[in-house]
Design goal:
Layout: H1 2-13, H2 18-68, H3 87-95, E1 97-98, E2 104-105, E3 132-134, E4 151-154, E5 159-162
Parallel strand pairs: 3-4
Antiparallel strand pairs: 1-2, 4-5
Length: about 180
């Protein structure tokens, strides 16, 4: 019987008590409370950087397209400024091949040597939408973004904005990026 008592004592000596386990859990909880805000802030900062990058890229390709298509910005069907600009024309002209007049065809189609400029319209990293609200020549930009689209674009001025109603931690509206 003495041997069983010694064996029991050896087994319990290597185990943790309930108090020790609770202390470790409490320390881990405190550590998580300190680290999570830093990680959360990093995620927001990364989305803001991605938004700025995507806007810069879209604006750059709009300017390149315009320079290569007789100074007509993407969005006008078949490059015809007398027609109302559309989202479909913008997406096609940026993601497909085109000729100098702005007519589009699948990539590598003979007679359509320009583009594609992008494989697809990027997703706005803040509202997770890739649609583009294309404004007519007479329309003014809305006063604020409302998150109904990923982007707002006006071919007449070649302006591109993020359709976001929120602001960054410095108070700058994402709409004004």
């Amino acid at each position: 019987m003495a041997e069983k008592q010694q064996e029991k004592t050896r087994k319990s000596a290597g185990a943790f008590t309930l108090v020790e386990i609770l202390i470790v859990v409490a320390l881990l909880a405190i550590l998580a409370l300190v680290v999570l805000p830093m990680v959360s802030g990093s995620a927001i900062s990364a989305r803001e950087s991605a938004l700025a990058h995507d806007l810069n890229m879209l604006r750059r390709y709009v300017l390149i397209y315009t320079a290569q298509h007789l100074e007509v910005a993407p969005g006008y069907p078949d490059g015809d400024r007398t027609q109302a600009p559309t989202e479909q024309a913008f997406v096609d002209q940026i993601t497909l091949s085109s000729n100098a007049n702005g007519q589009t065809a699948p990539p590598k189609t003979p007679g359509f040597p320009r583009g594609p400029y992008l494989q697809m319209i990027p997703v706005n990293p803040l509202n997770h939408k890739s649609t583009v609200q294309v404004l007519s020549d007479a329309d003014a930009f809305p006063a604020n973004g409302d998150d109904s689209h990923g982007w707002i674009y006006k071919p007449a001025t070649a302006e591109m904005r993020a359709d976001c109603g929120a602001s960054d931690e410095n108070g700058k509206r994402y709409y004004d990026y």
